[in-house]
Amino acid sequence: MSLFHSTVSRRDFMKAIGLVGAGIGSASLAAPIFHDVDELISSQKSIQRRPWYVKERDLYNPTVEVDWEMTPNRYDPRFSGQAAYVRAMYYGKDRVLTCQAKGAAENAKRMAAGQSGFTVRDQALTLVRKDVERSWTGAKGVTIAKTPQERGEPKWTGTPEEASRMLNAAMRFFGGALFGYGELDQRMRTKVVNSHSRGNVWQNTEMYIDKSNWTDAMTNPIVYEDVDLGYSTPTKLVIPLKNMYWICADFPGGKHQYQAAPSLLANGRGPHDNLRVLFYPSFSYFMRYLGYQTLGTMQDGWDAVPDNSTAILGGIAEENRQGVLSLTPEMALAHSSWTLLTDLPVAPTKPIDAGIFRFCQRCGKCAETCPAGTIPMGDPSWEAPPVDGKENIMHHLGRKSYFGNGALCWTYIYEAGHGCKQCIGNCSFMVGSGAMVHELVKGAAAATGLFNGFFYSMSKSFDYGLYNPEDWWDQSLPIMGFDSTIVSYDGGYRK
């Protein structure tokens, strides 16, 4: 079979798959259809606008097949692949205790040799950013917004649809990109909400390797109580039994930083961590001023709801082969999601179908890239494969998906010292937002899987993916490393 090389022009590429000309080929299958002006106008007033090829599905029916009857009750994230106990279970306590020192030694060698991506300026870019004090009930340590009761005013009220549109506008202003909403109903409470916070069980110490040392103060149980306001104690996080709702906020990451992997520079989380620092106090005070509570810290391991679940169920993203992150049509894997709970009634958003999960089943580029071999090849499965002959306890089952080896992934990350990120940077969806061909290809993939194998081969032929991290310093990239206009449909950004 002949290979396609990058000498093929983008126009020839578009011609080859029938995407040149209006309504030609598979692209026309995904084009939106409007029967009159009223339909067109009302389409602009949806809770959240997405690319033209993205379709909505029914609630609780994402593109990954889910058997809700088979789904176990609340997952315990203390047994994820990040946990020191789990990594020691599969790879031995000694390896866990020494992995960070090994990674630090590797980085010292690279920096001493002046290796690209490990210079002083790369290191400086990774420095810890200032954050606000966080709690289960909102930001602390800065000016607190007064509640309507404290101001002697009524709380804001509106329909759930009005609330969701209002929150979209406010959260975009605070730094968020995409948003999902839903009711914290019985299915969410019993199947999706975590049983505990993960806490710091990822730390590579004797204390966390031995789970008999764990206490409720270290990994708070998440419990339901008949109270009006959620609260926390040193030993528990409390969610009210009354009607509650979830809000998933998604933030863009530094796509070009991720593509500089593996290196210290490839900390694509930097931009969305910066946005999260701005967003968290702004949003919690906004909600407080309106008269509603928010529960959650927007910190890794400390919140009640697994963010991939709400991102997928709320229509922000789809399941994918890589599995650590969800995958959005706009930002691919270069993003992060965080979920907060509230008593403000919101209109639910539905799962989407952008052809992403179907494409991943024909692709496998992330699995080919993974240096530790932690991402599975082949087809999705209902079962998590054993790890070196031992039961795989790292996953919340109940869906037909890909179950990677998170314990080995994190062991490799620690021992390598550079944070890896190669699967993210090399994803076939990690392409630019400026060339029209990319949107047309995504539209074709959303409409049919016929071209997916071809698109995968072309992503390799055009050499999309990782590049020399030294080149990053000479590029003229967007502010904070991401294109904020990819989620903008008003204000002249689509004209």
Automatic annotation (TrEMBL):
Pfam entry (one): Dehalogenase
Gene Ontology MF term list: 4 iron, 4 sulfur cluster binding; metal ion binding
Cell compartment(s), UniProt: Cell membrane
Keyword flag Glycosyltransferase: no
PROSITE patterns membership: 4FE4S_FER_1, 4FE4S_FER_2, TAT
Keywords: 4Fe-4S, Cell membrane, Iron, Iron-sulfur, Membrane, Metal-binding, Signal
InterPro entries: 4Fe4S_Fe-S-bd, 4Fe4S_Fe_S_CS, RDH, RDH_dom, TAT_signal, TAT_signal_bac_arc
Coiled coil: none
Annotated GO CC locations: plasma membrane
Main location: membrane
Names of required cofactors: corrinoid
Entry superkingdom: Bacteria
Xref: NCBIfam families: RDH, TAT_signal_seq
Protein name per its UniProtKB record: Reductive dehalogenase
Species this protein is from: Dehalogenimonas etheniformans
Taxon lineage: Bacteria, Bacillati, Chloroflexota, Dehalococcoidia, Dehalococcoidales
